[in-house]
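Appendix B: complex inputs.
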Amino acid sequence: MDLHFTEEQDKFRQEVIDFCKAERGDPSSFSRKLSEKGWPGLSIPKEYGGLGLGAIYRVIFMEEIAYWRAPVAPYDYGVTTSLLGNICLKYGSEEQKKEYLPKIARGKIFCGQGYSEPQAGNDLTMVQTRAVHQGDYYVINGQKMWVHDARTYKYTLLMACTNPDVAPEEGLSMFIVDNELPGVTVRPQLAMSGQLTPEVFLDDVKVPATYLLGEENRGWDYYLENKPFYWNKEQGAETGMMRRIFDDIVRYARETIKDGYPLNQNPMVRQKLAKMATDINALRFLMYRMAWMETQGLDLFHIASIARVFHVEAWVRFINTATQILGLGGQLQLREKHAPLRGIMETFYRQAALQLMQRAGPSYIKSIIATHELGLPEAW
Amino acid sequence: MDFSFTEEQEMLRKTARDFLEKECPKTMVREMAEDEVGYSPQLWKKMAELGWLGLVFPTSFGGGGGSFLDLMVLVEEMGRALLPSPFFATVILSGFYVFEAGNEEQKMGFLPKVANGEILLSLALSEPGVEYDADSINVRAISQQDGYAINGTKLFVPYASVADHLLFVTRTKEGGEPGGGLTTFIVDIKTPGITCTPLKTLGRDHQCWIMAGSR
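Resulting structure:
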């Protein structure tokens, strides 16, 4: 066992840090320059236009652009590479790989996740959206919820039912749907996090059969098998944010005087800071271990479930604790004059609350762990 | 021990629930979260007519002579309806304060007007770098020939943007016990030198930032 990063990995981290420091002042060119580096395609093989660097590099990258609050949503790259990118690479046809992977690697296209529906939240076997094969097309009808910014993303990775006559797990398929196709309507919804998570309506949308990702009726398998990569991506981003918030809060506690002492001498605050540091370190270990297992081709399902539970609970606990340390001022929003840390914790507080409501939240995963990992009998 | 409500309290609860179901639908609650004023003056008027605003003040000050438990019953129903209003700021934070600490003239001057809905009050207590203890109050009020000069910043003053008067907690004496040197003034919010800025907060609950450089 060796828990060190390699010299190349340390060098790569430093390169990302230097890049973020140098370029983050100019949001208009940041994404372009980042794409020129080929970083959106970090884990895409070289033959498809990527850098072929593997999972640990991907996590380092996510961590650092989140830490430096780079003027891109780390999710934009993460969502596209870990959903469309990863599924396409593993299960897509050769044509699909050649079509999408080089574009993803150069940061040319973004693709959101179109899984949930009004009746299918945690349980995607309830997906009602229908795709009917007709000649060279699939005709798709249905409604999707919580689609990653479908207004600005060109594509949605859509889960639809292609065979209603079998068990749901055997009748779902994945499609790459261009959001500009006739019959696609995007209705923005503003979430409490401040992010837009639109509804997407599909009304007799004719999708060319070549946009079926991989094989028909394998969608459920792809979804399950891809979960660990998607979660690992989120952990990268959120660990980066946690490290940054922690550094900010430690500075705040050093510089803020209450009752005649710096806040960092207050026993309650010290307990909180120590707990925050513990959570960050534990999460980083889980996250990098999972990434390492990916590079070794090991089965990720077990570690992914454990890491997911810890990640979401730690993130919510961390944000809550950080906000408490700021006291009453923690409720002030961005740009308010008296807001500590320029009001950023108010935004994080709302974002963190959202994590608890998302699909595959900790309660759901724990029930999976209880059944599948611990071998407990089914719940009543 | 007796945990039961009186018949009058049950009636008050029922009246309040029926009234608020009709007058404070969720659409109104949502509207008010985005609204600059943050409450409905028409509804406030009706609440005054129902006797809610002066419920717990003695009848000699225009109130209903109710008990604290009566108030709990009422406030619980307001919470159930998510009623957006300056009730807490005006009646509980400030009205009680005047009733407890004010002289006869101040009580006569303010409480009947609170009870009939004529004026709104709020409490200016917290300051930047706030804690809930007395020694974190640093806004000074300095005695001058014809009054006091107050200088400083107060934060998280609820519904100050619609208040007519602020109860301004200030420091008038240094040293000694932290709570010993504090004095509260009833300040007309239109007094020159007072500015009120709405704060954008997590709860969207109409708290304000008050700056005073005034007398």
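The domain at 236-373 of chain A is CATH 1.20.140.10 (Butyryl-CoA Dehydrogenase, subunit A; domain 3).
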